[in-house]
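Severity: low
Component: inverse-folding endpoint
Summary: output formatting inconsistent between runs
Steps to reproduce: submit the following structure tokens with default settings.
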């Protein structure tokens, strides 16, 4: 199979849902099909296809918009710099894709970007550079409970100082380890 036409932008995130490998970053095509910054590769048939909202509007809108994926159950969650996913309202910086349709997580993320996500059970921990998620004040890190209607929760006072960016999160058991450019986490010095 042919690869992605990424230019200098590249692929920033890869996630697996069933036998489909989803890729996001900054690209315009995958194999011989048009794919705007988001595509999937079927590992069984070894073919690329674009990712569209209910078969209509495709991809992620923005410059090098996709950054990170996480799979919970039968849904894939996408984070990045994008301002819209599949033309769906309120999908700024984060959205959910169920294999057919994009959907918003509340009103989305307010800020520059989502850089990294990890999960513990059905809760996704989201890091980047932002000030709120669905109206919940959140300094660069927030939790999202994927059960029911889905809710965002602040993690204390978040991370601040320097640029406040969260660049990586890993979960070990029930503990989160956070990396980035910040000097405080939850109000405690974290130099």
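Observed output (run 2 of 3):
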């Amino acid at each position: 199979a042919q690869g992605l036409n990424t230019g200098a932008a590249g692929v920033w995130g890869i996630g697996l849902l069933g036998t489909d490998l989803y890729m996001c970053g900054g690209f315009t095509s995958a194999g011989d099909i048009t794919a705007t910054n988001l595509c999937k590769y079927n590992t069984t048939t070894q073919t690329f296809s674009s990712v569209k909202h209910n078969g209509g509007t495709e991809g992620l809108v923005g410059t090098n918009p996709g950054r990170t994926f996480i799979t919970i159950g039968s849904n894939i969650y996408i984070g990045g710099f994008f301002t819209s996913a599949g033309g769906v309202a309120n999908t700024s910086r984060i959205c959910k894709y169920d294999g057919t349709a994009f959907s918003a997580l509340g009103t989305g993320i307010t800020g520059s970007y989502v850089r990294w996500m990890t999960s513990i059970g059905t809760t996704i921990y989201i890091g980047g550079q932002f000030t709120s998620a669905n109206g919940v004040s959140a300094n660069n890190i927030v939790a999202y409970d994927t059960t029911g209607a889905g809710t965002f929760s602040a993690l204390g006072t978040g991370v601040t100082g320097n640029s406040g960016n969260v660049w990586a999160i890993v979960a070990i058991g029930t503990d989160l380890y956070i990396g980035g450019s910040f000097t405080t986490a939850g109000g405690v010095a974290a130099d």
